[in-house]
Amino acid sequence: MDKLWKGRFTKNTDKTADAFNSSISIDSRMYRQDIEGSIAHAKMLGDTQIIPKDNSSEIVKCLKQMLDDINNGKLAIDTSFEDIHSFVEYELIKRIGNTGKMLHTARSRNDQVATDFVMYTKKETIDLISFIKKMIIGLTNHAKKHTATVMPGYTHLQRAQPVTLGHYLMAYAIMFLRDLKKYEKILSDMDKCPLGSAALAGTAYPIDRNMTAKALGFDKPSLNSIDSVADRDFACDVCYVNSLVMMHLSRISEEFILWASWEFKFLEISEEFSTGSSIMPQKKNPDMLELIRGKSARTFSNLNTLLVMLKGLPMAYNKDMQEDKEAVMDSIDTAKSCIDIFTKLLQGIAFLPENMKTAAQKGFINATDCADYLVSKSLPFRDAYKITGEIVNWCIKNDMVLENMPIDIYKSFSPLFEMDIYNHIDIASCVERRNSYGGTSSKSVLSQIEYVEKELNG
Asked: What does the alpha-carbon distance between residue 357 and residue 403 come to, in Å, rounded to a whole number?
């Protein structure tokens, strides 16, 4: 078949160059956006009398039929074409003849691909928002059940202070809520239509860019035609947020991998989302979580690919930009699949509160509360801190915990200790006293859940 740009050339493209130049194996995924953009463009050409209205209507009718034919399998996309734009235009001309050749009036593949790509990315971002909302709901549902489930909180992967499982899970829910807000911001930034920018300088035809922008679901046309065809910020933006989501997913996956081990045993992953060993019959491996952790690297690399590819490009369109779609599509596919599998895995997780409580009791994570007790008796915090450290050291040497250390031993460290120390260092009491805004008390966690749910429904 003839190239769209055949007029300037007298020789055929070398076959290896043809294959190297081709992008249809990737951009064929944008066939819907390409046809819908062409429909809007054709209608505008007719309404502005740039081409006869009858010809415009015939083009629109044929394009709609082509879209239906691809969707129902009657028309296969021919991957021997250079790109999806070439295939659609060729098929249109094949069906309606010379009338089809009018479609590309006042349009370039530069603004065409920019429009296709931003439309595709908008659609996928909306899907990502839907996926991430379901995951956040899964986390909040678990958090509601465990507002009073005590567990150790960690710093440096060392037991630090008592928290609740609900509080822990809401930390991740709030992380993902931030990601959700970033996706929504990206959608707003993408609400400008490049169509009508032509190659880079606009066009002399009396086109109506507001008409095509509205028809394609954009708020308005893009402001500068050079920027319109050169801009891939939206692609970088979605890859950046995907990277953040995957980094957060990787972190919670790592936590759950640790918690599922015999050394922690804070949770059980359902068999539907676990695998076994080919040689060790006792094994139950958290492979889905490990894969999420590993796949995060792909999204980081995709973002890096875009940034490095774009950093040295002069205005406006350059063929380097053909490499953008594969990186964005892989980033989106990876993020969606990982969010989806984690959400499903989350539904079948069984947390083990007794094991969490036992771990909390053995880690001296109520030591800060012991120091705070002395502060409440008017001892300066630094002195209280030193005395409590000495008490912990004594307990370790004598295989004891703060809760069962005799009162006379307490008094040997400070006469300020009274019997009420045992109520003060009770793990559940320690948690409930942390009722500062954002803290781990049940009331605070319920407030966090209420906030997140309100944001999801807002």
From this structure: 13
